[in-house]
UniProtKB/TrEMBL annotation:
<feature type="compositionally biased region" description="Low complexity">
    <location>
        <begin position="62"/>
        <end position="88"/>
    </location>
</feature>
<feature type="repeat" description="WD">
    <location>
        <begin position="370"/>
        <end position="399"/>
    </location>
</feature>
<feature type="region of interest" description="Disordered">
    <location>
        <begin position="462"/>
        <end position="508"/>
    </location>
</feature>
<keyword id="KW-0853">WD repeat</keyword>
<dbReference type="InterPro" id="IPR036322">
    <property type="entry name" value="WD40_repeat_dom_sf"/>
</dbReference>
<feature type="compositionally biased region" description="Polar residues">
    <location>
        <begin position="488"/>
        <end position="508"/>
    </location>
</feature>
<keyword id="KW-0677">Repeat</keyword>
<dbReference type="InterPro" id="IPR001680">
    <property type="entry name" value="WD40_rpt"/>
</dbReference>
<dbReference type="InterPro" id="IPR015943">
    <property type="entry name" value="WD40/YVTN_repeat-like_dom_sf"/>
</dbReference>
<dbReference type="InterPro" id="IPR045182">
    <property type="entry name" value="JINGUBANG-like"/>
</dbReference>
<dbReference type="InterPro" id="IPR020472">
    <property type="entry name" value="WD40_PAC1"/>
</dbReference>
<feature type="repeat" description="WD">
    <location>
        <begin position="280"/>
        <end position="310"/>
    </location>
</feature>
<feature type="region of interest" description="Disordered">
    <location>
        <begin position="20"/>
        <end position="91"/>
    </location>
</feature>
<dbReference type="Pfam" id="PF00400">
    <property type="entry name" value="WD40"/>
</dbReference>
<feature type="repeat" description="WD">
    <location>
        <begin position="238"/>
        <end position="279"/>
    </location>
</feature>
<protein>
    <submittedName>
        <fullName>Uncharacterized protein</fullName>
    </submittedName>
</protein>
Length: 508
């Protein structure tokens, strides 16, 4: 057990880049509890206020064309069109806009992304729309797809048609994970709810519990040592989250459930009896993402700009998690994490639009960055050798990793709002020849779920691009041996999708 402090961390520049900027503030909360709509700052007492947001007009990154040397008129610069003409400046543009892609000191290994017409291996095959809320969470199992939204509903889809649904009484659904017959949903009211499909009626889902369980709360409240200070003059027992649940993850054998919260803590739950085994004061700001990975390791990402590693160890019959290392420390918020357990690779998405990744040989070391987005990365997913990143810029970048090199296979376009969540499953229609074919589900704040069929098999054009990328990366590494060359303006704007090794990654 860890003691909770009442101090409030001083906001950094990165804390103003919200990981959830589009939350509807009109949601009702049960039991008359008032939960603040949270930005990346972890203030326990402040509520969401439009006056406190960074307005687009006041942001130094969003000045008029006349005021900013980077945004000239269309006549003066072919790279900076007017807001009406530019596809990157649509009504969804928010303080997520990243200034880093405009830096003249960023030199990338260029990759030209493919359009849908360039390759039939990647394409949109369906769209699921029900006008009852923005989509915040997804989970797929067998032939069922679960979607969570800010309408408090969990919809179940089968064969791209609505199959059934169930509703929680309170709290938008921010996370969904499935362990066998149990469905766990994390909510903005700080509770985790557990559901199970009825044995008599497969369309009926029954709620079988809420974490923490009432009996555990009553038992824990009898011991004064179980209380921790969560804010000034307010204490609660350590097994409860006192702010929104932002993320959920299961370990490999699905015996443990991890929950991250805006209350800065990571909690560990036993799936069999729903008991809270451990609470960790993991970060100095909201925990935005948690993922259980390989070798008993758990990774957490936070609005404080850090990615931390925790290792599970057995102490007799008890399980305890110990801090291992900090993989990343930056000014901007960490918004998403994903792990490829087969390749022992960890991916991290940030509010500046960059994806960092670490590969493990003897230990985890940063191996490079993926730069394909103009705005914040909001979600990540992996499948086979593929990595998917969804962004506030409404696009999904699809990368393939081969021999330690990442290549951008395609940019999936189709959403009219930020892409908030992703999940990937095997393509049931794939033949033995197309074993590396996948179905990708993407949920958005445009209230829709898109269904995509993708393949790991690159086309001839993509193979050519891969060779060009490897050649350019080799040339850049050779240049460093004899002195770095100043990047040209063409190298900055030559591509929307790029790979960068840590040796040539510009520091800001």
């Amino acid at each position: 057990m860890f003691a909770q402090t009442s101090s409030i961390s001083r906001p950094k520049f990165g804390s103003f880049l919200r990981s959830d900027p589009y939350i509807n503030n009109n949601n009702e909360v049960e039991d008359d509890e008032q939960f603040s709509i949270r930005d990346s700052s972890a203030s326990a007492t402040s509520t969401y206020d439009d006056d406190n947001r960074l307005s687009i007009e006041s942001s130094p990154w969003n000045q008029s064309a006349a005021a900013s040397p980077w945004n000239q008129s269309a006549a003066a610069s072919p790279w900076n069109q007017s807001a009406a003409a530019s596809p990157w400046n649509q009504p969804w543009t928010q303080p997520y806009t990243s200034p880093f892609h405009k830096s003249p000191w960023s030199k990338f290994a260029a990759v030209t992304p493919l359009n849908d017409s360039d390759d039939c291996n990647h394409g949109l095959i369906g769209s699921l729309v029900r006008e009852d809320g923005n989509i915040y969470s997804l989970a797929a199992v067998n032939d069922l797809l679960y979607t969570g939204s800010d309408s408090k509903n969990i919809r179940v889809w089968k064969n791209q048609k609505e199959y059934t649904g169930f509703k929680s009484n309170s709290g938008l659904v921010k996370a969904i994970v499935i362990a066998g017959e149990k469905i766990f949903t994390g909510h903005q009211d700080g509770k985790i709810r557990v559901w199970k499909i009825s044995a008599k009626n497969p369309r009926l889902h029954k709620r079988i519990g809420t974490l923490p369980k009432l009996k555990h709360i009553v038992k824990g409240s009898m011991n004064p040592s179980n209380y921790v200070e969560v804010r000034r003059h307010k204490n609660t027992i350590w097994i409860k989250h006192f702010d929104a649940i932002s993320c959920l993850s299961l370990n490999e054998d699905q015996t443990l459930l991890y929950s991250g919260s805006w209350d800065k803590t990571l909690k560990v739950w036993r799936v069999s009896d729903f008991k809270c085994l451990e609470s960790i004061n993991a970060h100095n700001d909201a925990v935005n993402s948690v993922v259980a990975g390989f070798d008993g390791m758990v990774f957490t990402g936070s609005a404080d700009g850090t990615v931390k590693v925790w290792r599970r160890e057995l102490q007799g019959k008890r399980t305890k998690h110990f801090f291992v290392q900090t993989l990343l420390k930056q000014e901007c918020a960490v918004t998403a994490l994903a792990v490829n357990s087969a390749s022992s690779v960890v991916y991290c998405g940030s509010s500046n639009g960059i994806v960092h990744y670490w590969e493990r040989e003897k230990q985890l070391t940063e191996s490079g960055t993926l730069k394909g987005h103009k705005q914040a990365v909001l979600c990540l997913a992996t499948a086979g050798n593929l990595v998917f990143s969804g962004s506030a810029d409404k696009t999904i970048c699809m990368w393939v990793r081969e021999n330690g090199i990442h290549m951008c296979l395609s940019i999936l376009n189709g959403h009219n709002g930020p892409v908030k969540c992703l999940t990937v499953g095997k393509d049931p229609d794939a033949t033995a020849k197309d074993k590396r074919q996948w179905i990708v589900y993407s949920g958005s704040l445009d209230k829709s779920v898109k269904v995509w069929r993708v393949s790991e098999q690159p086309s001839e054009l993509q193979n050519l691009q891969s060779q060009n990328q490897k050649t350019q990366l080799k040339e850049e590494q050779q240049q460093q041996m004899y002195g770095a060359l100043s990047p040209s303006a063409d190298s900055v704007h030559s591509s929307q999708c790029s790979f960068s090794s840590p040796s040539n990654h510009a520091r800001y």
